[in-house]
Structure formats: C-alpha cells, structure tokens
Design a protein that fits this description.
Layout: H1 21-33, H2 38-51, H3 59-75, H4 77-89
Amino acid sequence: MFQYNVGKSSISGVLGAQVRNEIIVEVTARAESLSIAKGRFAALIFEKWFADGCPPVTPADAAMEMLRNHAQAAEKPQAVFDAGRKKLAKR
C-alpha cells in the first residue's frame, strides 16, 4: 500500500480538470468512504500515476513519449553507443 502526503505546500500547486459526471460520482463515493475530500482523492490518483512512472494514458500520449525519449537519446549519441557496447560485452 502506498501513502502520499498531498496538501498545500511550496512544492504543490492546484490543477483543475473537467471530467464526466460518472467519474465525479465514483471519486466522490471513494473519497467519502475514506473520509477525505474528493479533490484530495483526485490528487492521490495523480500521485499514484506519477509514482508509477507516468505511464501513457492514450495511444497519442504513448507516441509522444516515444518521440520524446528518442529525441533525448539522439541528444546523447555517445551515451547510447556506450550503453549498447556495455550490453554486448556482458554476453
């Protein structure tokens, strides 16, 4: 089980999102069962997503992440080459 300290601080901000009513109903029910505000429950969802490594949430998001990762690798070609060489040396 994970535990997060989500609240007002100098390292947090406010994020508003419009979602379908059926999602609000579920978030509200889950938050009430935990005796927390629905905004806090929504923040916990974001915290878990972040802790899980920010996995893509749509195919377009996945494609953009792949392009971003490719661009980062292209900025450091020697590091990519060295990593590949080390991997081959382990065989």
